[in-house]
Specification:
Length: 136
């Protein structure tokens, strides 16, 4: 699997008073994919487990979307380091990019609140299945 892909129809609640998708809605859409990806790595969100925390976001809004638009959400994992990995998020409308975002996801010990290495089984899956390249 090189990327996770999911069809999405823009909901009324995603839009603002100007009739286009509010800038925060895109990030909520990708939260759903981020959770699905973490669980696909055999990880969980239990209180005493490793947690994926968004450490950095870089966002580009390329074209507006409106209520009812049919889009495709794409999550790819291009790279990872010792305690973090990168998600690239893309929204496509009719095959054209309308939104892109790079997120640095940091692994944290939920009980202690400190950075910890990516769990070995998750690391292996991101490299072998998702095509992530190890850096640093």
């Amino acid at each position: 699997m090189d990327a996770i892909r999911r069809a999405h129809r823009v909901r009324w609640s995603d839009c603002d008073m100007h009739g286009h998708v509010n800038h925060t809605a895109y990030l909520v859409w990708f939260e759903d994919l981020r959770v699905a990806h973490w669980e696909s790595l055999g990880q969980s969100f239990k209180p005493h487990s490793v947690g994926p925390v968004v450490g950095q976001l870089s966002v580009r809004y390329l074209a507006p979307l409106a209520f009812g638009d049919e889009v495709e959400l794409v999550l790819a994992v291009p790279s990872l380091r010792r305690t973090s990995f990168v998600h690239e998020y893309t929204v496509l409308k009719n095959g054209e990019r309308v939104f892109e975002c790079t997120a640095v996801i940091v692994c944290v010990d939920n009980a202690a609140g400190t950075r910890i290495p990516i769990p070995p089984e998750a690391r292996a899956l991101m490299i072998e299945r998702d095509g992530a390249q190890a850096e640093g």
